Amino acid sequence: MTEVRVPTLGESVTEATVATWFKKPGDAVAVDEMLCELETDKVTVEVPAPSAGVLGEIVAAEGETVGVDALLATINAGEGAAPAPAAPAAVEAPAAGGDSVDVMVPTLGESVTEATVSSWFKAVGDTVAQDEMLCELETDKVSVEVPAPAAGVLAEITAPEGSTVDATAKLAVISGSGAAPAPAAPAAAQAPATATTPARGDVENAPSANKLMAEKGIDAANVAGSGRDGRIMKEDVLKAALAPAPAPAASAPAPAAAPRAPVAAEDAAREERVKMTRLRQTIARRLKDSQNTAAMLTTYNEVDMTEVMALRNQYKGDFEKKHGVRLGFMSFFTKACVHALKEVPEVNAEIDGTDIVYKNFVHMGVAAGTPTGLVVPVIRNADGMSFAEIEKAIAEKGKRARDGKLSMAEMQGGTFTLSNGGVYGSLMSSPILNPPQSGILGMHKIQDRPMAINGQVVIRPMMYLALSYDHRIVDGKGAVTFLVRVKEALEDPRRLLMDL
Questions:
Q1: Does residue 341 lie within any of the structural domains?
Q2: pLDDT given at position 309
Q3: Which of 242, 272, 288 delimits the end of a domain?
Q4: Is the peptide bond between 259 and the residue preceding it cis, with omega within 30 degrees of 0?
Q5: Locate the Lipoyl-binding domain: which residues (predicted)?
Q6: What is the pLDDT of residue 229?
Q7: Same domain for 340 and 419?
Q8: Angle at 317 between CA 311 and CA 320, to 5 degrees
Q9: How far is CA 26 from CA 75, 76, 81, 215, in A?
Q10: Counted domains in the chain
């Protein structure tokens, strides 16, 4: 008897709802034939049969909510369990060496349709334990580790390092034992190549894909199947429906493909060409989109950091002893910005079509540089946090960002952003907006400068502040008022306590 369990749903997704069963108890099923469809809060996941046989008991009925790895049904070996004729070798392999389990791409998150296999932690023939990390995928937003769905032996790697896979692709096969599943691999690998186009008529598409094609009036001949043997999946139909017309698609890459200026042969020999990571490509695209969309303007001011530095030096020892985290400057800036956003709410708003959406909360984005590029983890409900809670959240998010462990959910939903270029020595810059936000505050290096105070020239620790804002929604008066309120709160932190 083989158990059918909920597959890995992706980081931060812990449960799903059983939407539809395509089979009923007593029906014969083939390997990889779709049994049911699960719905999460992000995507729809189809569950294939892990082995051929007869569907025994359905444990989770339609409409039930199930967790990751929960038992959905059982498959019994028995008569009428003949596999589909298209892939006999792949079906016979489990009988010889134990059941085999496909390792699929986990849920990548909303709007993410593909990923690049960055590294494999295991090689073919290695023994793996359930939930042991097999490989790491790199999307245009985060890195995703793929755990083993079952214990066994890594029999086949179908997506080597560097390859690009879609959200429904198979990455590898785990055999239940080490009894030489390799002979099945060539047949399984060869089948899609031969069945994708000529033998497609013999392959049964996913029921949800057939339903969606009928609803949208899409011809199956115009859809490239990514499932086993060229099977058309629901995601394939969605891609086909969203695909642009052939002519624009062909011409779209033209601007990016502009030829380089001629390079001397001796210089070319000393150059190194490295493919941009998906994260870096996304950063480049989003920053340029921000410039093309928003009416971006930057206003500047300077702040005397004397009082904040004195307060920090006086209490940082007691603060760390009590709260277990260092007292930095970010909590002061976060508090000051929250204070200013209450007075100038348009800086904490966004444009949606012809509407302005005002946010009665502050989800503070904190830009962080990582070895792979710039990311912006979000501190949710920062307006209700204490200094200690803010410092702890920033420290935890920063560590996860540097380790590449941030989930997509942790980088979405921000309403305003802080960018601290001062940690790298920047004295002045104009930060770029993080769409759809309407404001971002750039912090810079603290530098001793001579200042005129009460008719006297004194040396003070000064910092330049830069507020970039979307002039479509924020007027100059609002931007300057926001920056002045931040300056006032930092130069006299007591104002934060009195809400002045």
A1: yes
A2: 94
A3: 242
A4: no
A5: 1-76, 100-175
A6: 61
A7: yes
A8: 105
A9: 9, 9, 10, 30
A10: 2
Q: Does one domain contain both 337 and 204?
A: no
Residue 271 lies in a domain: no
**The tokens 């530098």 sit on which residue?**
447
**Structure confidence by residue, pLDDT tens digits, 287-308:** 787 778 788 899 999 999 999 9
Phi, psi of 136 (to 5 degrees): -125, 130
Cα distance between residue 10 and residue 108, in whole Å? 6
Of 401-415, 427-441, 475-489, the poorest mean pLDDT is in: 401-415
Respond yes or no: is residue 323 known to be catalytic.
no
- 454 within domain boundaries: yes
pLDDT (0 to 100) of residue 365 = 92
Q: How far is CA 412 from CA 141, 288, 366, 416, 441, in A?
A: 10, 19, 12, 11, 18
Does residue 234 contact residue 48 with C-beta atoms inside 8 Å?
no
CATH number at residue 321: 3.30.559.10
Q: What is the pLDDT of residues 144-154, one digit of tens each?
A: 778 888 888 88
In 176-222, beta strands by DSSP E: none
Q: 343 and 425: one domain?
A: yes
Residue 406 within a domain: yes
| Cα distance between residue 146 and residue 168, in whole Å | 13
Task: Look at residue 442 and tell me whether its pLDDT is greater than 90.
Answer: yes
- Residue 475 annotated in active site: yes
Q: Which two tokens stand for residue 423?
A: 């940690």
The residue out of 242, 272, 290 marking a domain boundary is: 242
Listed in sequence order, the residues at least 6 apart from 59 whose beta carbon sits closer than 8 Å to its beta carbon are: 71, 72, 73, 74
Same-domain pairing of 355 and 462: yes
Give me the DSSP letters along 395-430. HHHHHHHHTT---GGGGS--SEEEEEGGGGT-S---
Going by their DSSP bridges, the two strands 456-470 and 447-453 should be labelled as antiparallel
Catalytic residue among 126, 202, 289, 475: 475
Question: Is the same domain home to 227 and 287?
Answer: no
Question: For position 90, what pLDDT does the model report?
Answer: 36
Does one domain contain both 95 and 175?
yes
Measured CA to CA, the distance from residue 101 to residue 170 in angstroms comes to 10
Residues 325-345 pLDDT 10s = 999 899 999 999 999 999 999
Domain region containing 408: 280-498
**SS in 3 state form for 15-65?**
EEEEEEECCCCCCEECCCCEEEEEECCCCEEEEECCCCEEEEEECCCCCCE
Q: Alpha-carbon Rg of the chain, whole angstroms?
A: 28
Reduce the DSSP state of residue 88 to 3 states and report it: helix
d(CA 439, CA 264): 44
Are both 160 and 51 inside the same structural domain?
Answer: yes
Q: Identify the active-site residue in 69, 166, 323, 471.
A: 471
- Indicate if 441 and 394 belong to the same structural domain: yes
User: In this predicted structure, what is the pLDDT of residue 408?
Assistant: 72
Strand partners, 352: 355
**Band of the pLDDT at 43, cuts 50, 70, 90?**
low
